Amino acid sequence: MATRALATALPIGLRTRVLRVLGSPWRLARYAWVRSLQARVVMGTLVLCAVVTALVGVMLMRQVADGLVESKRNQAIAQAEAGFADAQQQLDASVVTDANSRSQVLDQLIKSLGSGGGSPRGYDIVAYGPLGPVGSGLGAPGVYSSGPVADSSVPADLRAQVESQPGTYWTYTTLSDAEGASQPAVVAGSRLRLASTGEAYSLYYLSSLADQEHTLSLVRRALLSAGLALMVLVAAVAWLVTRQVVTPVRLARRIAERLAAGRLEERMQVRGEDDLARLAQSFNQMAASLQRQIGQLEELSRVQRRFASDVSHELRTPLTTVRMAADVLHDGRGRFEPATARSAELLQVELDRFETLLTDLLEISRFDAGAAQLTAEDVDLASLARRVVAAYCGFAERAGVRVEVVAPGRSCLVEADVRRVERIVRNLVANAIDYSRSPLVQVTVASGPDAVALTVRDWGVGLHREESSLVFNRFWRADPARARTSGGTGLGLAIALEDAALHGGWLQAWGEPGRGAQFRLTLPRRVGGKLGRSPLPLVPAGGAPLEAGQRVQRRDVAAVDS
Amino acid sequence: MEADVEPCRAANGKVLVVDDDAALAEMLTIVLRQEGFEPVVCNSGDRALETLHEHRPDVVLLDLMLPGMDGLDVCKAIRAESGVPIVMLTAKNDTIDIVLGLESGADDYVVKPFKPKELVARIRARVRKPSDDLMEVITIGELTIDVAGHTVKRGEEPISLTPLEFDLLSCLARKPWQVFTRDVLLEQVWGYHHSADTRLVNVHVQRLRSKIEHDPENPEVVITVRGIGYKAGAR
Question: Could you give the 3-state DSSP secondary structure of residue B7?
Fold first, then answer.
């Protein structure tokens, strides 16, 4: 209930959260205990304080009660003993000859004793014995009582003790009157003897302890309220004191959170020279050092990027001149003698390689510097695949490879950087043509609800299991001795992997020796979208060697015949 | 071939080369002269404008990294007073650099290192004269396009377009409602025969829209067909 009342006072957004977290008071307490140092300190102090207050209170109560009751008891016993002595004296002095005179004596005695109680009477008298007409006061024969005292007020074992031996005995009891109301009391009793007849009577003084009990309850109430007030006070003090410590700690936490969120200029306020001030000082030193180091790293990265860009410009301009000069030489090689003509040709070919390598190196360094940017637009992956395959038509023909595109009739739209995706596909297709020694290369495109995929499958020499992850390493080659025809730089797949990662996509490889290989590119439909499942399997269903004349089932094939 | 060079020169046109690298500028001169152009070299961005006024070239070949005035500023300055085709030479293939160059008014770009034939093809595409000599007038929406006169009017108010923007608009407007892919536009307007950079199309469509559309954010003349390309049509 309390939780609900608290929750309704909060804004709606917070309310649901608070209600969820704090379903019950128990959970509220648990939440506070777990989350708040202050609550923990206050709660701990309260519990300890409650225990100590309770112990002190109990001890105090006991001592006060003992003191109060003891004095009253002593007073009551002294009164009773005086009364007994007086009564015995009167009995001894009287002369009883017959029942009539006995009755007279007793009557007189009882009256004198009974009137001694004072007003209000401090005690009641109960007498047992052959009292005659006097004893009929309480109903039961042989019992006299000076007030409305129930018979049960004098405990039976005290009576037995008093009646068996001479002397004064006392005990605590409950004084009940005829209406059943009861109060604590002390009862003292003694045996009296009528010397002339030898008859024995037992006489009891019952002194009420109601006043004492009243005082005690007053004291108890005072102690209880003092204890409660003390606990509230202690809780408040604990709260205030811990607040002094916790507030700077919370401040530090908030500032640490802001630092973590990238606001590196945040600092704590340093006041005084105490422990907390020193904490703030160290915290600020840490923040400053972090800021400095991050600044240095950023500067380094900026320098690196700047360097890549400068190298790009500085290398490219002379390379352009060389390139153009080589082209002019190459065009005019017909008029050179054979050795010079061949040199011009070699210069041309190697310049191509140099250029590709430079481009790839710069691209990789751009990725490493985190400077690669994505320019996303809607791209139809199927038409992109057809375009790439068409561009490799001549190259495939020379290598004696058939390249097919399998794509659904509808377009496979994806939000992507067309330049990068095209580069990935170009790389995969060129690699398949170049390295697989497969007669057929198949490019498959498919789209799913939140992803599109493209696979490049060949039925060539295949890959070893461990190679399928190595292929993406820079400058890695399956077989260093194998001749290359397309002049790859060894960076192609590494760049393709980075390109795919930049889109939040996957680039994976599968292969088995002798059964071919498959590369799969999976891209989320929207940039930054989550990838759950690729629409195409990585391991092809019919992972079998291609047999002559075998045709894979397809919907729409744009074949590039060799 | 050499024998044909002299008479061809005037026909192929004058090219202003703005480049600070002396070796590259000389090499460009050699290649352009071989291909029958008449090159004029300017070594710094500051003097580009006066050289332009002096020689009235058919095409400007502009290096983006220049001492003195930055290539982009030169590009903007030229575009501010002339529609002369500008082909920029850039060492950076980063999207941001390319797009900045195109947005500054360049019609096309070549990334260093380039092959001479590639460059010559770019220049040829920019200086080629419109082949149609028919008196064609196309109306699309509120726009009236006079193909032979190279003018566009909205109602009576003339709109100033660069030759490239004019080519782009008339290419789309000749076949209204036909969807042109970016590749087709690249081939018909820029003269690329193999697929090239679609950023060229995107940036120039934006520039064109900013001149001819009432609200470039909600175009009515040049409409984007998502995932395919563009078409002309007035709603």
Answer: helix
The partner residue sitting opposite A328, judged by closest CB among B23, B30, B183, is B30
Residues B64 and A534: their CA atoms lie apart, in Å, by 43
State the burial class of residue A406 (Cβ atoms within 10 Å of its Cβ: 0-12, 13-18, 19+): buried
pLDDT digits (tens, 9 = 90+) for B165-216: 888 888 888 888 788 888 888 888 887 776 567 788 888 888 888 888 888 8
- pLDDT of residue A2 exceeding 80, the answer is no
* CA-based nearest distance A538→chain B, Å: 27
- Interchain CB distance below 8 Å, A321 and B21: yes
Which of B88, B115, B228 to probe the A interface (max A CBs under 10 A)? B115
- CA A75 to CA A188: how far, in whole Å? 11
What's the Cα-to-Cα distance from A443 to each of A99, A112, A456, A522, A552, rounded to whole Å? 139, 130, 5, 13, 12
- Among B89, B92, B228, select the one facing A312 at the smallest CB separation: B92
Closest CB to A378 among B31, B115, B227: B227
Burial B61-77 (b: 16+ CB within 10 A, else e): bbbbbbeebebbebbeb
- Whether the complex's predicted ipTM is more than 0.95 is answered with no
Task: Tell me which residues of chain A, numbers 463 to 502, contact chain B at a CB-CB cutoff of 8 Å.
Answer: none
- Under a CB-based contact definition with an 8 Å cutoff, are residues A405 and A445 in contact? yes
Q: What residues contact A273, with CB distance under 8 A and at least 6 apart?
A: none
Beta strand segments in A108-262, E:
123-128, 143-145, 169-176, 182-194, 199-208
Whole-angstrom distance, CA of residue A183 vs CA of residue A153: 10
**Interface check A373 vs B, CB under 8 A:** yes
Residue A160's alpha-carbon distances to A81, A154, A189, B7, in angstroms, are 19, 11, 11, 157
Least Cα separation, residue B215 to chain A (angstroms):
22
**Residue A413 C-alpha, separation from nearest chain B C-alpha, in angstroms:** 7
Of A366, A373, A418, the CB nearest to B198: A418
Pull the structure tokens for residue A261. Answer: 């969120």
Output the pLDDT for position B132. Answer: 55
Nearest-CA neighbor of A504 among A451, A457, A456, A468? A451
Q: Is A3 on the interface with B (CB under 8 A)?
A: no
Put simply, the answer to whether B23 touches A318 (Cβ < 8 Å) is: yes
Phi and psi at residue A521, to the nearest 5°: -110, 125
- Chain B residue closest to A367 (CA)? B94
Nearest Cβ partner for B227 among A322, A375, A380: A380
**Within an 8 Å CB–CB cutoff, is residue A306 touching chain B?**
no
Rounded CA gap, A551 and A557, in Å? 11
Rounded Cα distance between A64 and B49, Å, is 111
Task: Look up residue A116 and give its DSSP letter.
Answer: T
pTM, rounded to two decimals:
0.53
Residues of B near A (Cβ–Cβ under 8 Å) read 21, 23-24, 27-28, 30-31, 34, 65, 89, 91-96, 112-117, 183, 194-195, 197-199, 202, 226-228
3-class state of residue A214 by DSSP = helix
Amino acid, single-letter form, for residue A479: D
Residue recorded with tokens 């071989």: B34
Task: Look at residues A319, A309, A326, A317 and name the one whose alpha carbon lies nearest to residue B20.
Answer: A317
Could you tell me which of A133, A83, A137, A139 has the C-alpha nearest to residue A112? A83
- Compute the half-sphere exposure of residue B77: CA atoms within 13 Å on the CB side of its CA: 16
Cα–Cα distance, B119 to A208 (Å, whole number):
125
Q: Which residue of B has its CA nearest to A360?
A: B93
H/E stretch holding A433: helix A418-435
Mapping DSSP to helix (H, G, I), strand (E, B) and coil, where does residue A52 land?
A: helix
pLDDT in tens, A26-48: 887 788 788 888 888 888 888 99
